[in-house]
Amino acid sequence: MDRDLSSVQEVRELLSRAESTLPALKELSQEDVNRITEAMADAGYQAAESLAKMAVEETGFGKYEDKVTKNRFATRNLLQYIAPLKTVGFIEEDSVGKVHKIAEPMGVVAAIIPSTNPTSTALYKAIIAIKARNPIVMSPHPAAVRCTIEVCNVLSGAAQRAGAPKDAILCMSIPEMSGTQELMKNPSTHVILATGGTGLVKAAYSAGKPAFGVGPGNVPAFIERTANVRKAVKDIVASKTFDYGTVCASEQSIVADLPVKDEVVAELKRNNAYFCTSSEIAALEKTMIKSTGGINSGIVGQPAHRIAEMAGFEVTPETSMLVLPMTGVGKDYPLSIEKLSPVICFYEVDGWEQGCEKSLEILNFGGIGHTLVIHSRDEKIIREFALKKPVFRVLVNTPATHGAIGYTTGLEPALTLGCGTWAGSSTSDNVTPLHLINIKRLAYETNPLHEGDTTTESKPTARWRYDDQYHYRPAEEEAAKPETHADAPASPSPLPGSQRQYGTSGITEDQIDAIIKEFGNQKPE
């Protein structure tokens, strides 16, 4: 069979299997879900090293040690955050507004897995999907099929042993674009988690399904004159070189305030950064940028010295990153885009206002909605940046890579970072299991149109009573009236001093008292 057709057929079969698990997943209790996701996270954590090794060997991208760290973050750190989250049954009860929230699974999740962070992304997406009681079908990048399938095998086995249905975690083995399109558009798919190239993310948004996607992260880092420069530079170097720059939240440009510019340059050199000459920048441009535009995938996730070698010049193997002094942003400066490698632009500005303008230029050239970093000790300036920048993560005095995903900040731990409607995404949040549940609302009347007691608490005496014949009947129902005949004599009115009689036998109050007295005088046998 044609490979495209085989891919489409495989997807349909996988979706059918995943969809068959929906009833069983829906019946899981919160305790069940927590036990299963904990087992998945533990299994992924234990396999972090082997999965990292597979990812580096298969894709050729990134650094083994950092991929181990990412795998551990996507399991143990993620679990610590999601463990207390309520995703089953009543998740919130409001005794004042009388609106209670109930979690419902969304359904089958289609997950697009990138080649830059395949194992960590697959671990994260599977765990948050199952936490929300959704089955998941993954579409791996063609360059990362084996390692992504292995993630699914590891997690599926752990989940089943903990009580999950068999086909709740599945992965394509024939990842053609035709199959991926079928996965996103098939009626059995209910929601899409898309991480990948711009074209693929746009395809996810146009698939006619709710989609959470990640846009490009052309992240500027502004070092303002009050910053702790030594720490700021160390943070930027650690972030930019982490997994050789494959994380979309990593810094792409340094914007240095003039009074501290020389100190920033000195600290960068102290941290083994290499400042490129104009001719070297031109050579890098030819090597890194494709003739049709966009980044040459051959340089993605490669160490700095290898990229320099590809461009025709040499730097020492200890070089942490290549720094490109630039004067402009945009099409005439093609390296001012997201580079997914340890290559970073460098701009000089005078004052935070110019820093603000330069950061906006950078973001408008491919980073809207994603992330910005400011290194400063001036709270007023920090807040001005937060108010005016078109991003949804403004990080302060922290590495961008680690801060945006919630490793060094209080943000939700996540590897899918929403860029909001400004970038075409349905969320601006770090995506968590709570984004993968529908919320049903149980709402009681608080502003009645009509009077009447609608108290829902059980009060038998209010709704039921014994009538004078000792029959238990609804309060609003009257006891049956005795039959009367037109020719019957009227009942005589009680005479003065006479006693009231009870029941059909006409027993009097004195007779009742005598019965009670006699009962009280009886001795127990």
Total of domains: 2
Distance between the termini: 94 Å
- Judged by helices, strands and strand pairing, the structural class is alpha/beta
Q: Architecture of the largest domain, CATH level 2?
A: 3-Layer(aba) Sandwich
The overall pLDDT, averaged over residues, is 91
Strand content: 15-25%
Low-confidence stretches: 491-496
Radius of gyration: 35 Å
Overall shape: globular
The CATH superfamily of the largest domain bears the name Aldehyde Dehydrogenase, Chain A, domain 1
Summed up, the helix count is: 18
CATH class of the largest domain: Alpha Beta
What is the CATH topology classification name of the largest domain?
Aldehyde Dehydrogenase, Chain A, domain 1
Widest β-sheet, arrangement of strands: 10-11-12-9-8-13-14
Give an overview in words.
InterPro entries: Acetaldehyde_DH_acetylating (IPR013357), Ald_DH/histidinol_DH (IPR016161), Ald_DH_C (IPR016163), Ald_DH_N (IPR016162), Aldehyde_DH_dom (IPR015590). GO terms for molecular function: oxidoreductase activity, acting on the aldehyde or oxo group of donors, NAD or NADP as acceptor. Keywords: Oxidoreductase. The chain is of the alpha/beta class. The protein has two domains: 223 residues, Aldehyde Dehydrogenase, Chain A, domain 1; 189 residues, Aldehyde Dehydrogenase, Chain A, domain 2 (3-Layer(aba) Sandwich). It contains 18 helices and 19 strands. A seven-stranded parallel β-sheet has the order 10-11-12-9-8-13-14, sandwiched between helices. Helix 10 links the parallel strand 8 and strand 9. Helix 1 packs parallel to helix 8 and helix 4 runs antiparallel to helix 7. About 1% of the residues have low confidence.
